[in-house]
Amino acid sequence: MPHYKIAIIGAGPAGYFTAQALQNSQSDDLTFSIDMFERLPTMWGLVRSGVAPDHPKIKSVSKVFEKVASEPNFRLFGNIEIGSDLDIEEICPRYDAVVMCTGSSLGKTLGIPGEDLPGSISAADFVPWYNGHPDYAGVEVPLDGDTAVVIGAGNVAMDCARMLALEPSELDPTDTASHALAALHESKIRKVFIMGRRGPEHAAFTAPELRELPKLEHTDVLIDSESVHAAHERAAAAGEIEKHLASNLEAWRLIAESLQEGHERVMEFRFLSTPKEIKGNGKVEEIIFGINEIKDGKVVETGETYSVKTNLVISAIGYYALPIKGISFRDGKVENDNGRVLGTNIYTVGWAKRGPSGVIGTNKSDASDVVKLLIEDLDPEPKNGGDIAVVLPRDKTIVDQAAWTKINAAEVAAGEALGKPRLKEVDIAKLISLGQ
Ligand code: NAP
Question: What is the mean pLDDT of residues 392-415?
Fold first, then answer.
């Protein structure tokens, strides 16, 4: 019975769903050993460091990941970075296939003057800051002004805006990182703008996320009803309205019609606004937007501008992948053909393959499609390249599944005492020691 060895690089949703697809493809004639490598001592990728803390239900998929990891054919090599601790050239000959599930961790930039001023940060830094990713615990987030501006009309922008606009006590029973929770309790921000460069009908927010906004207990959510009305008219004029757009337009209407309670905390959507320049003396003080209009279905500039005084600008306009030594990247993704890295035994799944799109579950079908191709490509005779153990770095503590289980349990136990789902540790050395 052929038995193949597969390496998965990255312990996020794409990685676990790939392992699950491999496990589900096993039969009497085909079996796999799966080795998963992860650069951090903590697992679950965006489920841990991306999903907003006030959306705990989305994180319950981690139970599926742990079930996958508990199978006897699964080994975990956490705290091992590919490209520095171990090269891809050392991995490929030892496995029948290697699947890159390394995501996209760098934030796209606006490319406008003033973007580098302190106080202008990317969601790619802000989100892992509030989620306790060890590399981002020191990100400077100025919360001493009364207004914040979030750029982008997607779900990441919405998460960032909610985190800034919620009453911080609502975050106390969540797994928000302690440093972020303390800072948010001290935050002076009361008004958060979310800015889209096109119209509400073009926004990438999804309806469930929009529909929860009028239910926020301590935050008023505003959108000018005229802009919602205009979006409805434009969408209707453009032809049949697709289901997801109809659902979004209805959600916008509910937001526009929701009762304003006079809360001190306000989240306001503004559309047809393109960021042009960030101004300030040594730090962000103001951001200038160009006003757009929609003519013949196209977004065009009017030439007019307006400014918003703020000292915090967060750009949530998409991501691209951090290059890894030995892997070819193009357009912010692993260079691939439907998940195959041509001419190699390397494959890719998730954001590293298709760019930053879709929800967590999208990676499940993505993984299953790529695993089918991987199986088609397998040589009849499995490779016999020896075990990876011989090339693992001797100076690094490997966080295996038993160690990760201890880290996870320790965080959950520490959180329990405080009424939280977990208390995240952000120091790498302490995380490793929790696993020993
Ligand atoms: P996204 O959905 O692609 O949205 C990016 C937004 O940035 C778009 O509104 C885009 O506008 C805007 N943008 C791009 N370049 C810009 C520029 N130069 N100036 C101004 N605006 C610009 O990306 P995302 O929000 O990062 O989300 C990534 C994926 O994760 C999405 O599939 C999202 O649904 C998913 N996600 C899901 C959840 C959830 O389910 N709760 C939470 C977070 C993320 P244009 O359309 O005009 O280009």
Answer: 97
Q: Whose CA is nearest to atom 40 of ligand 1?
A: 359
Q: Which residue has better confidence, 259 or 433?
A: 433
Contact indicator for 155, 204 with CB cutoff of 8 Å: yes
pTM over 0.85: yes
> Ligand 1 centroid to 196 CA: how many Å?
10
Strand extents, DSSP E, 196-272: 219-222, 265-270
Q: Ligand 1, from 317, 359, 362, 364: best to mutate by most atoms within 8 Å of Cβ?
A: 317
Pocket test for ligand 1, best of 104, 156, 193, 206 (most atoms within 8 A of CB): 156
Q: What is the mean pLDDT of residues 135-141?
A: 98
- CA distances 31 to 3, 73, 94, 280, 423, Å, are 5, 9, 16, 60, 38
**DSSP string for 43-104:** --THHHHTS-TT-GGGGGGHHHHHHHHTSTTEEEEET--BTTTB-HHHHGGGSSEEEE----
